[in-house]
């Protein structure tokens, strides 16, 4: 008898889950535990740093090892009598929100490993020592840490496949479809959390370049475009190098600082986007010129090319 397709996929889910729990065990019970033990002696790295690197890996490991994997085992042993996994995955889905924290922290964790490996040779040696063990399969700590980041998309793919292969009258159809919907929402939640974190990080970097001026720093702002621009002075027919930051609510007209200590730019003028008008100027002497007029004042600006001018106007 050929095994039904949906059972093969359910078995693949079980096998990959077993391998995944082994990987989580390595991260939590080996890397985290041993690095924490050394940190407590005060010789390698502060305990706080180890906690920050591994985020909430312990909760993730316990959930998969003590709940999800045993539940899957029970299901597969009983498959011939009760061929279903949809309800177990529905129980799993809400807990996958735990991954949001781990995934958001991932880049920071990798940065910390790099920074502390340079700062603390004993820290680096301990990681290298664990990486040499057979259980690590010649892979780095960073590589193993990527596994939880990739696990939710993997569930989504396997479950999609499972739902596709289910016979129309299968007793698991309703549960499996609902489970897939839940996993899809969790994956979206996780991706949205990452996107929002990246947006805030990029925004913070921009604010630092601008010298963290109080009235500019606002987490709800959105940076739309930035870049160098020439300011045309009609008085003496000359141009000077300036720099623009366009946000959803304001245009910052800046001067690059010569001595770059702290901030990179000085804000010369802040214009509200509300009520602002922008139009191209046909100037033979200064091509690619456009006019920005707002409540505060009017600027005559020159871009480096026609395309660049159109991009700013748009």
UniProtKB/TrEMBL annotation:
<keyword id="KW-0862">Zinc</keyword>
<keyword id="KW-0597">Phosphoprotein</keyword>
<dbReference type="InterPro" id="IPR035899">
    <property type="entry name" value="DBL_dom_sf"/>
</dbReference>
<dbReference type="GO" id="GO:0007010">
    <property type="term" value="P:cytoskeleton organization"/>
</dbReference>
<dbReference type="InterPro" id="IPR011993">
    <property type="entry name" value="PH-like_dom_sf"/>
</dbReference>
<dbReference type="Pfam" id="PF00621">
    <property type="entry name" value="RhoGEF"/>
</dbReference>
<dbReference type="GO" id="GO:0046847">
    <property type="term" value="P:filopodium assembly"/>
</dbReference>
<keyword id="KW-0479">Metal-binding</keyword>
<dbReference type="InterPro" id="IPR000219">
    <property type="entry name" value="DH_dom"/>
</dbReference>
<dbReference type="InterPro" id="IPR051092">
    <property type="entry name" value="FYVE_RhoGEF_PH"/>
</dbReference>
<dbReference type="InterPro" id="IPR055251">
    <property type="entry name" value="SOS1_NGEF_PH"/>
</dbReference>
<keyword id="KW-0206">Cytoskeleton</keyword>
<protein>
    <submittedName>
        <fullName>FGD2 protein</fullName>
    </submittedName>
</protein>
<dbReference type="Pfam" id="PF22697">
    <property type="entry name" value="SOS1_NGEF_PH"/>
</dbReference>
<keyword id="KW-0677">Repeat</keyword>
<feature type="domain" description="DH">
    <location>
        <begin position="5"/>
        <end position="193"/>
    </location>
</feature>
<dbReference type="GO" id="GO:0005737">
    <property type="term" value="C:cytoplasm"/>
</dbReference>
<keyword id="KW-0863">Zinc-finger</keyword>
<keyword id="KW-0963">Cytoplasm</keyword>
<feature type="domain" description="PH">
    <location>
        <begin position="222"/>
        <end position="314"/>
    </location>
</feature>
<dbReference type="GO" id="GO:0008270">
    <property type="term" value="F:zinc ion binding"/>
</dbReference>
<dbReference type="InterPro" id="IPR001849">
    <property type="entry name" value="PH_domain"/>
</dbReference>
<dbReference type="GO" id="GO:0005085">
    <property type="term" value="F:guanyl-nucleotide exchange factor activity"/>
</dbReference>
<dbReference type="GO" id="GO:0005856">
    <property type="term" value="C:cytoskeleton"/>
</dbReference>
């Amino acid at each position: 008898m050929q095994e039904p397709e949906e059972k093969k996929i359910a078995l693949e889910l079980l096998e990959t889950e077993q391998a995944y729990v082994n990987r989580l065990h390595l991260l939590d019970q080996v890397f985290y535990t041993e690095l924490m033990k050394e940190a407590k002696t005060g010789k390698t790295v502060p305990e706080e740093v180890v906690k920050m690197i591994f985020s909430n890996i312990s909760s993730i490991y316990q959930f998969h090892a003590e709940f999800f994997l045993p539940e899957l085992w029970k299901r597969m042993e009983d498959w011939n009598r009760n061929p279903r996994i949809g309800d177990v995955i529905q129980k799993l889905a809400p807990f996958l929100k735990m991954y949001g924290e781990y995934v958001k922290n991932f880049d920071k964790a990798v940065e910390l490993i790099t920074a502390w490996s340079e700062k603390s040779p004993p820290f680096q040696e301990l990681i290298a020592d664990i990486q040499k063990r057979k259980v690590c399969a010649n892979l780095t700590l960073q590589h193993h840490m990527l596994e939880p980041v990739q696990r939710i998309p993997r569930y989504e793919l396997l479950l999609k496949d499972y739902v596709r292969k289910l016979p129309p009258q299968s007793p698991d159809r309703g549960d499996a479809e609902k489970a897939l919907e839940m996993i899809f929402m969790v994956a979206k939640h996780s991706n949205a959390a990452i996107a929002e974190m990246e947006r805030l990080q990029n925004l913070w970097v921009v604010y630092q370049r601008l010298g963290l001026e109080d009235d500019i720093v606002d987490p709800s702002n959105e940076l739309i475009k930035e870049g160098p621009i020439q300011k045309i002075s009609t008085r003496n027919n000359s141009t000077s190098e300036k720099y623009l930051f366009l946000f959803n609510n304001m245009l910052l007209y800046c001067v690059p600082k010569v001595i770059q200590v702290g901030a990179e730019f000085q804000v010369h003028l802040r214009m509200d986007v509300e009520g602002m008008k922008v139009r191209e100027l046909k100037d033979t002497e200064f091509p690619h010129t456009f006019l920005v007029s707002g409540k505060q004042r009017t600027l005559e600006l020159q871009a480096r090319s026609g395309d660049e001018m159109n991009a700013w106007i748009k």
